[in-house]
Each structure stands twice: as C-alpha cells, then as structure tokens.
C-alpha cells in the first residue's frame, strides 16, 4: 500500500546576522509556540510544528496573507480585505542554513525574517536566499543521475569555439535559438543520458532545468534559479522530515561551501 506523495518545491538560504550569531533552535522553539497562539486562524495542523533534529528544527511556518476583493451591494461597490493563513515547511539548522518550501502565496522574505525574529524590512541585510545553483553542480547531478528525462538549455554552446566540429555547430545553433528543451516524452524506457550528443550539449551549454532520477530511482527537478523539486510522503511527519533532509541537505551544503 503506497502512502500518498506530495510534490514540494524548495529554496535555500543562510542567516548571517550582522550583530549576532544565527538564532539557536531553542530561541526558535519558544517563538514557534508563541506564533501558534497568535494566529487569528490557527494552523490547522499544530502537530506539525517542530521535530527536534539535534542540530536543527523542522517546522511549518504559518502566516496570514491579506487579499482584497470587492462586492456590489445596495450602496454600490464595497471594498473588503480578507486574511488567509498559509503555511510552508522549513528546515533550519544551527549553523544558520535553512531550506524552505517556496510557495506563490507566501512572500519568501517572511521566512528568514521569522527565523531572525525581525520584520522583513529590518531583516534585509541579515540573510541570503540563494538565487542560483552553480552550473558545475547541475552538470554533476546530470553525470550522477541514473536516468535523465528532461533538460532545458539556455545559452547553447561555448561562444569561443570557432572550429567547425560539433562544438562549433552547437555554438552556431545557439546564435539562433533562445532555449532548447529535450524530453523523452512519456516513454519510460528512454534515457537522455544515453546520447553522446546530449552529453556534449551538457558540457558546452547553460542548463536551465534538469529532471532526473537518482540512485534510489526517485525523481528530482533542479533549476538554475536555485530551486529543487521532488516528492515527499504525505501525512507522516517523520518520513517527511527524513526525506527532506536526505534529499535537500546535500544541495544546501554545496551552496554554503560555494558561497
């Protein structure tokens, strides 16, 4: 019996407060308890608040986002505001590194601001959200993948190659093409890694997106804008946290090392 899985899109950041070290998980725990009691629409899943990881914490950050709407009444058009609570998963480590669920309905900057216990305006200089993965890292994921099902290239070819072998042809193609996307379609038996031509494209071009299967045969997606997408088990916090940590932490460590 398979438990349901949910696709999750993650981003990565690091806290680097100018005047202090990053908050300890103890500080965080006290604040989380307070946050839970302050929301006017309480988080519907309070049991998901935190899991102690010895060197970090997993919690679900809840915040209210205000939206405006209008209705037509007897007195004409009336303006209303509506507050809705949204939540995003966050994995925070004692060294200041954090992994968070990137959602369209929650402004990214609210999460580091909460971790720092500051307003988003005051927190501005005290954290960094990574805006990209290094190309070499994406190529490494390609090389280590079991299978590759989709690649989107941006800049094609290495502009300096003026010879007329394959790299010259790829560069020439790059002059005319905005981006190139290769996909195996719905045929599971195909693998883009089996093609020497794709290997050359990977060596010579900028990779925007890569969808691949790792050594456990789990599907991951990585984008050059610093986002990682994969599936996690639903309704089981323990499994969710260990999956998040196991899959996403290596990406965070690489970003911190390159920073």
How widely separated are the two ends? 43 Å
Spell out the helices and strands N to C: EHEEEEHHEHEHEHEEEH
- Which structural category fits the helices and strands? alpha+beta
Gyration radius, rounded = 22 Å
Oligomeric composition of the shown chains: single chain
Question: What is the number of strand segments?
Answer: 11
Which regions contain 5 or more consecutive residues with pLDDT less than 50? Answer: 43-47
- Total helical segments: 7
Shape: globular
Biggest pleated sheet: 11 strands, antiparallel
Beta-strand content estimate: 25-35%
Structure overview:
The chain has 259 residues and is of the alpha+beta class. It has 7 helices and 11 strands. The chain has helices at residues 25-38, 110-116, 120-123, 135-144, 166-176, 196-204, 237-258, and strands at residues 5-15, 50-52, 56-73, 76-93, 97-101, 127-129, 147-153, 180-183, 207-213, 219-223, 228-233. Strands 1, 2, 3, 4, 5, 6, 7, 8, 9, 10 and 11 form an 11-stranded antiparallel β-sheet that branches. A hairpin with a 3-residue loop joins β4 (76-93) and β5. It is globular.
């Amino acid at each position: 019996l398979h438990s349901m899985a949910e696709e999750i899109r993650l981003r990565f950041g690091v806290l680097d407060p100018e005047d202090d070290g990053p908050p300890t998980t103890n500080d965080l725990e006290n604040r989380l308890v307070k946050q839970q009691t302050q929301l006017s629409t309480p988080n519907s899943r309070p049991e998901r608040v935190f899991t102690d990881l010895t060197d970090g914490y997993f919690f679900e950050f809840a915040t209210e986002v205000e939206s405006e709407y209008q209705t037509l009444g007897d007195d004409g058009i009336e303006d209303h505001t509506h507050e809705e609570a949204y939540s995003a998963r966050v994995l925070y480590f004692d060294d200041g590194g954090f992994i968070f669920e990137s959602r369209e309905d929650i402004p990214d900057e609210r999460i580091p601001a909460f971790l720092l216990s500051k307003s988003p305006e005051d927190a501005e200089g005290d954290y960094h959200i990574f805006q990209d993965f290094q190309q070499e890292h994406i190529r490494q994921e390609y090389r280590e993948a079991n299978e590759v099902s989709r690649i989107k290239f941006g800049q094609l070819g290495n502009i300096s190659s003026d010879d007329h072998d394959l790299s010259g042809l790829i560069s020439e193609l790059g002059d005319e093409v905005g981006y190139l996307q290769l996909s195996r379609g719905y045929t599971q038996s195909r693998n883009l890694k089996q093609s020497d031509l794709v290997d050359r494209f990977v060596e010579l071009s900028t990779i925007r997106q890569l969808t691949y299967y790792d050594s456990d045969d789990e599907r991951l997606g990585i984008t050059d804008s610093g986002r990682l997408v994969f599936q996690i088990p639903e309704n089981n916090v323990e499994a969710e946290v260990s999956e998040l940590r196991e899959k996403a932490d290596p990406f965070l460590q690489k970003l911190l090392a390159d920073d």
